[in-house]
Amino acid sequence: MLSPLVMATLLLFLLGAAAGLLLQKLPALANRLNSGFALLGSLAGLVAAIQIFAQGTPVDGQIWLLGSVHLDMLSALMLLVISTVGVAVALYSFAYIREYQGKGDVAIGALMNLFLFAMVGMVLADNALGFLLCYELVTLTTYWLVKTNPEAAKQSRLYLVMNHIGMALVLIAFWLLCRESGSLEFAALREHHLAGALASLVFLLSFCGFGLRAGFVPLHGWLPVAEPVAPSHISALMSGVMVKLGLFGILRVSIDFLGASQLWWGYVVLIFGACSAVLGVLFALAEHDLKRLLAYHTVENIGIILMGMGIGMIGIANQQPALVVLGLLGALYHLLNHAIFKSLLFMGTGSVMFRLHTRDMDKMGGLAKLMPWTALAFLIGAMAISALPPLNGFVSEWFIYQSLLSMTKLGTSVVAPLAVVMLAVTGAMAVMCFVKVYGICFCGAPRSEHASHTREVPGAMVAGTLLLAAVCLVLGLGAPWIAPHIASYGQALISGQMNVATGATLLPLDSSQAILSPPVIAITLLGLFLIPLLVLAIFKGPKLGRRHAGTPWACGYAYEERMSLTSGGVTHTLRQLCAPLYRKQPQLDLASALHGVSDTSGTTDWLMHGVVLALFILMAVGV
Question: What would the pLDDT profile of 193-215 be if each residue is shown by its tens digit?
């Protein structure tokens, strides 16, 4: 029986949207109601998702707006993701919405509730009609939210067109599925597995269609354009939650409906994931715009999740239960983890922008002293996305590493060893990128007048970011207890589709995987950190603890502020090595154009522009 909390979740989001529409002449009250209903709805969804994980069995029911609904472990995980991020974003929005006072603030709050309603409805729907209607509502609400920025007309149109191209591909895939099964209900689609060329066509259509929503390379054209111009708490929902709906759709169709019956499907997903991870982080390294940099890291992490999904699909096709569980565990755990730490980073960036009104990292600096709570939360998010132990990003990437290493033991392909190398390179460059970000933005001296006179953001914004920082710690340190629940989706596939007896062991891990214990790692790291402090406390001399302020050493020259390291300087060598990837984008003004001179100080994502152009050409000729 469907939990009343699920109904309450949808109803509260609708009430929040209605409050924003009906109380436009009372903006202060409307904004409080918008954030309040979003918070209550997200809390109800969070409790409902936890109940389903505790029960461990799927739940079916009927909702008037959606028709039949079905909550298996995959839907419950997505509900958990939406609700957790929704709680933090709703808290954050109580204060952050002041940034948009008189500039569409009430509309943003109402649309945020409608956005949350559409995402929850999509993961609950168990029929094609309800699923596709919610999918389209997600697209339209996101478009309107991005468009609330008056300077984002082009970006919002690009997002709308690309996602409607994806919608068209998804519609064709569902039309083929429903035509063959004779029903719009997902239960009929699960029972009627397609085979042969038609199944492969449906897989490719859904992979590309949902891929345009997920934003992996080379279908990422809208993501680094639209996400940076949206309000920061909406950027958190877009990057942390909305793009995951694309991955959810790929899993539903390729595994749930089609049974991942073809081996090459898994390899396609794995290869696209590996390429997206490497290229996403390479483009992020070249960015000076903080929100655009985070958007490219979304491309990177979507690639990492795809790698785990591909491994799980390969395991299903090869009848390898351990590979299925490990691959899907890594993918779904990283899906959850990325939603948390990426939302945290976007909200932390929003806090910085709330005070400085800029996204340029070279105009920040020294913020850790003036915004200590924001700096602490951002540091935890930066460590998590860099996969540093014992935080949550490390745990999920560890499982993906282990699944790749298990796959190499099959000895059937060179793809797995190459993917291990690409994942390792991605991790190293992610660390480099966030050393740059945190060092430039929060450390050193202020780099602008605004940065030198800023202060901490309001308490509601601090509470939202610190909540997600705490969840990063819980998901990392609590991995031994949380992972078995997330692995239940892969375990159900083994029991159902592969007809393999699971026995008493939920996670078929070998000894090297069983050694992983984030709490032990945390205690070890804490001990290693305390040892040098203890040695200093025992042996330091009378002058060792004194601090002297003075001018930094500049090799004998007079120190100037412009000598400080810039965001471009940190990655200069890497950008020179990868020069073909970073094509220069001419920045022309009228005077320089008349004299035939151009400034090529900016870089452009040539891959993104090429694919976007190809999509528009295909649309124009009616393909």
Answer: 788 899 999 999 999 999 999 98
Q: Residue 418 phi/psi, 5° resolution? A: -65, -40
Residues 6+ apart with CB under 8 A from 511: none
What distance, in Å, lies between the first and last C-alpha atoms of the chain?
44
Of 400, 172, 138, which is closest to residue 246 (Cα–Cα)? Answer: 138
In angstroms, the Cα distances linking 335 to 315, 332, 374, 571 are: 19, 5, 24, 28
Centre a 10 Å sphere on the Cβ of residue 88 and count the other Cβ atoms it contains. Answer: 28
SS3 assignment, position 579: coil
Q: Side chain identity at 318, as an amino acid letter?
A: N
Phi, psi for 101 (deg, rounded to 5): -60, 125
CA distance linking residue 147 with residue 226, whole number of Å: 9
Cis omega (within 30 of 0) on the bond before 389? no
Q: Are strands 599-603 and 67-71 parallel, antiparallel or unpaired?
A: unpaired
Q: Where are the alpha helices (DSSP H) in 56-127?
A: 73-96, 105-124
DSSP codes joined into one string, 390-402: TSHHHHHHHHHHH
Read off the amino acid at residue 106: V
Task: In whole angstroms, give the CA distance from residue 364 to residue 458.
Answer: 19
Tell me the average pLDDT of the chain. Answer: 84
Alpha-carbon distance values, 22 to 15, 144, 189, 336, 361 (Å): 10, 18, 41, 35, 40
- Taking CA atoms, 63 is separated from 4, 14, 423, 543, in Å, by 11, 14, 42, 72
CA distance 396 to 381: 15
Instruction: Write down the pTM of the prediction.
Output: 0.89
Peptide bond into 218 cis (omega under 30): yes
DSSP state of 583: -
Q: How many residues does the chain have?
A: 623
Using DSSP bridges, classify how beta strands 584-587 and 67-71 pair: parallel, antiparallel or unpaired: unpaired
Name which residue leads in pLDDT, 486 or 522.
486
Reported as a pLDDT band with limits 50, 70 and 90, residue 501 is very low
> Phi, psi at residue 163, to the nearest 5°?
-75, -25
Query: In the prediction, which pLDDT does 117 show?
Result: 95
What SS3 class is residue 544? coil
Give yes or no for a contact between 68 and 127, defined as CB atoms under 8 angstroms apart: yes
Q: What is the DSSP string of 442-470?
A: HSSS-SSHHHHT--PPPHHHHHHHHHHHH
Asked whether the beta carbons of 289 and 228 are under 8 A apart, the reply is yes
Cα distances (angstroms) measured from residue 281 to each of 160, 247, 327, 430, 474: 25, 19, 22, 6, 26
pLDDT for 321 beyond 50:
yes
pLDDT class of 596 with cuts at 50, 70, 90: very low
The encoded tokens of residue 5 equal 């909390």
Specify the 3-state DSSP secondary structure of 128.
Answer: helix
Residue with the two structure tokens 């600096």: 365
